[in-house]
User: Fold these one by one.
Assistant:
Number 1:
Amino acid sequence: MAQADIDRLYDYSPEYLTDILRSVKTIAMVGASGDKTKFSYGVLRVLHETGYEIFPVNPSPKLTEIRGIPVYRSLEEIDRPVDMVEVFRPKEEFYEIAEKAIAIKAKVLWGQIGVYDDRAAKLAEDAGLKVVMDRCPKIELFRPFWKPRLDLAI
């Protein structure tokens, strides 16, 4: 399927995305990287600086923190409520991560650009989660319909 077709397929209203980005406070980032050249690092940085509490998730025992934030090995290891699970993993892993997001009682399942799976979306939606796929919250934060949290110190 061409990217233009995927973009049309996963077309979310500005209100839907705004509601999610305004309502979530905690974000578990599955596939977070400590490598400053990786896109996931940049997204983590912006979300953290914007005021979200971030829980980086990466199974590597060598990665213990990112930007001073402790890294968790799995979603199940996080001992606090998680509002949103953001997925920086291959789309083939999205269904399994959806199952885990449901198990930890997340409210939103968000698949990064290129991460989408209709079965995973249905599973999550049937469990009461809001779902966004093939989108980047960093990009969505700065679209015209969104007002950045300019009152926060960076």
Number 2:
Amino acid sequence: MQIHQLRYFCAVARTGSFTRAAQQEHLAQPSLSQQVRKLEDELGTKLFDRLGRSVRVTQFGEAFLPRAEAILRQVSDAKLQIQELAGEERGKLVIGAIPTIAPYFLPAYLASFARKFPRVQVSVVEELTHDLLDRIQHGTVDLALLALPVPAANCLCQELFRERLYLVVPENHRLASQREAHLKQIENDPFLLLKEGHCFRENTLSACGRARVQPNVVFESGQFTTIIAMVAAGTGVSVVPEMAIEKRDHCRFIPLADENAFRRIGIVQLKQHFRSLVHRAFLKHLQELQMKAQRRAITSDGTRGKRIAAVFPDQAA
């Protein structure tokens, strides 16, 4: 049994196709198929049912898959440990982030990390929560920035910060001049919401539920930018996290005063995954810069600082 055979088997299981697995592994499809058949011969059972152009994992393949993935993780971890013993500050790091975090939060952090560790290759995967959790389980993503909580019993979830929610309204809206607002005040307004699958949609609906508000949803989108543009055009109102606030004509952003009107952002990683030097360095870098950002916010704006202190009693000191 060869390591590359296990890797090919896992690739076919993940993609559901020998063709896509071969493309992913940069290998000719007949060669990949031959190696998988050799693995099946050695195990004495079929791992896949071949169904024309697609494949389905058999019950034996389902049982074998987590063991194969564990072996591949152990081999990868062993390589990383050897690199660390050699004192190398190099390697690869794959970071996952949901679309409501990635474009707003990651760019500045990744740029400063790249300057500090120029020999580290960082890749970013932007997907919805369920897909990123699946990638963490399969070892193709090292860590992910997600909205907490997440349904992952075998993952470590560390809260990084909490972020206040804002109501966004057209500039001529009756609430546009208010310093704070409550969700109850927009109960009958046309409401713009993120599409199904986005965890911030659930954050918004949960906040509305606690406020006993049934939002009058008239438009759904997969992007905050689209929603904010629609609000600016006078289509309705919406709720966005603080990091999505942007300078835009014809709309206003108002802090929500409702209890628990915030979302928790955290780092999610597999419990058994080896934390390489690069992995640990990125976590430390992320936490240090986030703490500095929070301190700057507190000292530069007394009003905003009080709000952060109220939401982050353990971090604002």
Number 3:
Amino acid sequence: MTERKPPARLSDFPHHCTITTRWSDNDAYGHINNVVFYGFFDTAVNRWLISVGALDIAASEAIGLVVETACSYRKPLTYPQNVLVGMRLAHLGNTSVRYDLAVFGAGDEEAAAEGRFTHVYVARDTGRPVPVPPLLRVALEVLT
């Protein structure tokens, strides 16, 4: 049996995004439902893209489409609780960007969940792959 690697630490991630859990995030077992973590990832990435000027939801010619996500869970989180989503660049390709992400309970140094999130960039009008926009390439340097 393969040993599980130690949990990611908050300091492993150069960018952090705070998100407040909602009442509806809890499931019947009293913790944040697994699907909600994917929403945390999506929110953190897109909030960062907007903040660095790499995404204008209504007007960007190139848009990132999610083509792959994954999440491994380590410990439960609950409502009400603020969480931090740590984000770093995992891979920068010609037309794609893969992020490593981790979700931390407020005040926790070890991740409650860890995952990845991949965008492929396409032309908004054709849906055909395009190179990662130059502005985004520059902005991604802070996530390494």
